[in-house]
Amino acid sequence: MGRSHYDALEPGTDAPSTAETDELFAVLSNANRRFVLSHLAEREHSPALDPLAAAMAEWSDDLDREDARIALHHVHLPKLEDAGFVEYGDTIELTDHAPDSLDIVERL
Q1: What Pfam families does the entry give (predicted)?
Q2: Most buried of the four, 11, 15, 68, 95, by CB within 10 Å?
Q3: CA of 30: how far to CAs of 3, 4, 11, 80, 107, in Å?
Q4: In angstroms, rounded to a whole number, what is the distance separating the alpha carbons of residues 72 and 86?
Q5: Coil, helix or strand for 87?
């Protein structure tokens, strides 16, 4: 006999936990963070904070360059780093976990 419709609602054993899924959606719910992931994926070289802030300010209607820099440094890059999507030091680099996440970003 096949699975019932109730069984189909249960996540498989390899599915991420609800907490992991909630964290992923929380990180990707912000357009600025989705921009950062997309911008980094399109670049051959990892940018430093200032060029990334300039790009985000140019993209955004709501941020000037300094506001973008502050938001990146204090909010967006730490959240992306905590999620395992970027490494943030002298430059900002995508991690090995980011490409799978970028597939999700493109679907949102």
Answers
A1: DUF7344
A2: 68
A3: 37, 36, 26, 11, 14
A4: 12
A5: strand
The identity of residue 45, as a single letter, is: H
Classify residue 94 by its DSSP letter.
E
CA 86 to chain centre: 8
Interatomic CA distance for residues 65 and 73, integer angstroms:
12
- CB count in 10 Å sphere of residue 57: 19
C-alpha 62/C-alpha 59 separation (Å) is 9
Q: What is the pLDDT of residues 80-93, one digit of tens each?
A: 999 889 999 999 99
Chain segment 47-99, per-residue pLDDT in tens: 999 999 999 999 999 999 999 999 999 999 999 999 889 999 999 999 888 75
Domains of the chain (ranges; CATH) run 17-107 (1.10.10.10)
